[in-house]
TrEMBL record:
Binding site for Zn(2+) 2: 377, 381, 405
Binding, chloride: 829, 1130
Coiled coil: none
Disulfide bridges in this chain: 346-364, 957-975, 1146-1164
Lineage: Eukaryota, Metazoa, Ecdysozoa, Arthropoda, Crustacea
Name of the featured protein: Angiotensin-converting enzyme
GO terms for cellular component: plasma membrane
Gene3D superfamilies reported in the protein's UniProt record: 1.10.1370.30
Keyword Glycoprotein: yes
InterPro entries to which the protein is assigned, alphabetical: Peptidase_M2 (IPR001548)
Highest taxon, organism lineage: Eukaryota
Record-annotated active site: 378 (proton acceptor 2), 378 (proton acceptor 1), 523 (proton donor 2), 523 (proton donor 1), 989 (proton acceptor 1), 989 (proton acceptor 2), 1121 (proton donor 2), 1121 (proton donor 1)
Amino acid sequence: MRELYPFLLLLVAVRCQNETANEEAEKFLEEKNEPYNMAMNAMMIKRWAYITDVRPETEQDMIVANGEFQAHQMGVFTEIEEKFNDLSNISPNIIRELKFLKIIGNGALEGEDQDQINSILATMESTYGTAKICPYSGSPDPAEGCEATMNLDDISLRMTESTDYHELIYMWKQWRAVAGKPIKDHYTEFVNLSNKAAVAQGFNDTGKLWNEYYLYHEYSEDMFKEEIGRLWDEIKPLYEQLYTYVRRVLNDKLYDDEMLLFAPMPAHIFGNMWAQSWVNIADYVMFFGNVSSVDATPGMIEKGWTVDDLFLTSQEFFVDLGFDNMTATFWEKSLFERPEDREVQCHASAEDFYSKDDFRIKMCTYVNHEDFITVHHEMGHIAYFMEYENQRYIFRNGANPGFHEAIGDCIALAVSTPAHLRGLGLIEDEENKIPFPLIKGLPQLPEDVTHQEMNYLLRMALDKIPFLPFAVAMDKWRWKVFDGSINPTEYNGEWWRLVEELQGLLSPTEPQPDDFDPGAKYHIPANVEYIRYFVSFILQFQFYDEMCSASHHTGHLFRCDFNGNLEAGTKLRTMMQKGMSQPWNEALQDMIGNGTMSAASLLKYFAPLHKYLEEINEANDERCIGWECDYEDIAREYMAGTYESEMNDKCSSAGKADWNYNTDINSDNEQLSIEASLEFSAYEKHTWDNFITEFDYENFKNETLKRQFKLKSVLGVAALDKIKLEALNKVQSNLKNIYSTGKICPYNEKECDLITSGIPLEGEPGETSIEDILESSQNYDELAYVWEAWRDATGKKMFDYFVSYVSLSNDAAQANGLENYGDLWMMPYDMADEFKNQIEKILNQTMPLYEKIHAYARKKLLEKYTGKFAAKDLIPASLFGNMWAQSWEALYPIVAPYPELPGLDVTDNMVANNWTVEKMFEVSENFYVNLTLEEMPTTYNTSLSMIVKPPNKEVTCHASAWEFCKEEDYRIKMCTGVNMQDLITVHHEMGHIQYFQQYRHASQPYAFREGANPGFHEAVGDLMALSVQTPGHLKKIGLLEEDFTEDERSDLNFLMLTALSKIVFLPFAYVMDRWRWDIFAGQVEQEQWNKHWWDLRATYQGIMPPVLRTNQDLDAGAKYHTAANVEYSRYFVAHILQFQLHKSLCEIAGQFDENDPNKPLYRCDIDGNAEAGEKIRRLLAAGSSIPWPNLLESIIGERELNASAILLYFKPLSDWLDEQLTDDDIGWDPSRVDDWFLPNKLGSDDTVAIIVGSVIAALVLLTLVGYFVGRSRAEKKVKRENEMREAQDYAENNDAYLSDGNNASL
């Protein structure tokens, strides 16, 4: 036994030593407690003075107090280091207390470093607390000289009220400019000093120091971060469902024109400066109407609640759970409302002054539901302070930082329930209310959840769930900042990378490296770690779940209100009294029976909502749940699948209905055509609204897919709402119907019966037509009569419809984000104003030749119509053998350079050789086949196409080619006559058919089945005609005698005839669209429309009306393309492009050499040249899949339109005209337009009344439409203003499926 004595003595000695070490440590801690509390109290008094009265003086006092407190901390830190460097004989609890006493934050700095960090923190907080912005003035930037009067409270309130996308951007951006950006350099300095302090305390960086409060034995920082990630992963599916639902509703209801459905959402639209809570948009995304909102605000206001009532009610709730009343000091010294006489930091906070009963709240409180909840939250902090007041200084805190935040929020979950608010009389009962859905297509509610409850859950989720990823982003970012993973130039970029990764949100403005957007959140300049709030949001539901169990709640968790339940209150108080004196996992274990954080209670609370959101999103066929989707793949799948199939089906149906109407004009077919067109337009709009415009296609990697979206990003008239679209379709139908059914009485029977004796513009073979009279009559007065009568039968009758057409068309343009309809027409050319300038430039280059032709024609017409007009006059428009003076071929007999030579019109030979209409189409098809292009068998199959005018039917004779989208069905509609002019037109229309077939057989998708631009489609047939009309080719097909001599004289005759079609057309084509551009742009008053038409015709064409006109006439309406809403620049482009292509192909075919006089360009015939045919095939097969400048360059080596080829073609004629004319012969005076117009009034009072009545009726209709339609669509993606519209715009005017001939003659 004696041998054990030494061992026992050693044991006793060790025990005594341990007891002595513990006693010494205990004594030390007890001795330091009261001085620590006093030092903390002194600092808190100065801090309180500053945050409740932000001035330089109070700021300086706070800085001094902070320094003094940090000096005290440092003193205790040093003592611990000296006295307790060996902790082996001290108990774990005391070691834990000593460890946390040694975490003194910035107090570990000394001297200048401490002064500097305190100064930096004060400056950053002061910058944040005093930041103000100028009120929004409608501009993206502050108004010049404005006064910054809006503080954060003002801004926050306005953000809850406004749904003006651009105002919200302004406030969001300006707040960051005044609160975030100015502190970036300060924050960079702060990070360095803060890390220096952390290292002095034994940590690698400040982030690790912060996270120490969440660690315990065998629970490392890596494990803590992994747990945060695990918890977020558990909650993320709920957030994704909520996110998807909110994105859809905001897109549909508020920001259709600004935000994208298939992209992350912008961060500024949630009614909250940081998008940490979305509750302020609840009213816009709520499920059901006529349901009492679980919002206490109206009830509190109705009952006359004051701010004090909010705090008294909160105190009562805590007292009923067994807590003590707030202290007298609390009520005396707290700040509940913003004072008017000084600046304060309004961010709500609870403050522990570490002095007996001194606990305070600072809050700029308003009587509203949000602050009702916040008050309970802050009083939760106060209750926690009071419960652990008797703990020593270091343990006067939550078990971890998240515990403190969770307590009040746990209480708030109970007090925000409908049952609790109803008990306070703050919300209504739901009896006798019939809810209705506010969102389309909502699924059936679960039987055990009411409409009010589902609304309530949604509101709660909007407040709670978006906060979680925001909280993670806040500190994930700072962990990277503190550990040096990112440098200051990367601060802002990394912030937005994390925000997008975690929240799925994008900056509404382009983030800049020198911005400092995280600094616009209080906790960054105030240096408050934020992961505590994430932890608190997890714990609050775990606490709530446990307290509900303690109060014996049954049923859905979200209904639980443990108000007045002492058992639940005792559970909570017991945990709170321990403060931080035990590791948080043990505190949690004691409270809920499990020491692990879990999202299960949160998910249990929101389970009914989660399921309901899943059902809604499934019903909406959401293709992207959340934001981490391959949007490009979704777009690719949609375009190749649903879009391709549906667009082809709808296009085909509408096209056939429109074909039926144009080939048999009657009211039944008209109605069917309108209905089919509306159905097609509605589907186009649906795809445009819900898919095409909802992708950020500009960032697609696949260039082909990007181009499909670019071409379809401008919809056209289908962007109109249904009522306006129907109105526009009807107006356009009326315009076309007036044109198509127009007839005039014969010259010698001016008061005829139009049904039996009326003359149409184009007639059947053997039937007199207006065109025949214009071409054959030599009677000046008859020509003038016919010219005027056609305008009376068409344009004049269209005027009122045209007024509506202009207004509605401009509405359509604006629905596409463009200023006017002329801008919409320019979209397919990809250049807008630049393209207009290019047209004018080309026109100016060709005008000298036109002026020569004009002068020579005028000379010859003066000889024919002596005394009808003067030598320098403009030429009467009725004398050209063409209704619109766009083609002067009928003048050829009098202007041919060598009239004695045989004519080049082979019509007589066609008749003599028994040519039929069918043969004309066969010969044309052979021309294409000889170029190794495709046969076109359906084109002249009369069971499909209409190639002659049918008897006893009204039809639209204007030549056009049709594609029906879905099948191998291509048709031509044409009232063909056996004559040379129609032979050329047949070749032109079959060029369209060849285009249709080539890009379809190249497997181009629907979006690319158009010309590279609208002019390309028109140019192809004209290109063929340049070969077909040559004497050489006409000989080849047996229509010109073999002995016809091609020499200089015949060449000049041929060039003159061709120029009468090609050159004189250019100024007319320009005038057609220049007039409409000006009308659409509102540059011409309505009563001056017709005068402006003649101003342009006089200026550019040198022609005048043969009879007096009025401004109640609409002479532009006498042209089909005006009535049919067909932009005309395509024909101008085609007339230039055809010569560029012709020149290139003729060089390839070896038929043109600029240096060989025997191979002039005008004699070239590419018939049968396979190499040229292959170039054409490549051009056509590409459709619109390649930007037209790129495609043109790949075919002919040129990227721009230019007049060099057409001028080269006609150079011999130009030189010959120079010899025939003097300078005095050329030119005209366009200034006498006023002389051609009667006074600006109508012919009779009755007519005035009728027109005025029509205008008023139209205005009333538009007003009613505006009233019922409501808010018009705002501009759609202004940044896309320069994007390309699809080549042909017939989809915008009922002729969606056809391509017109070159001009009316053709």
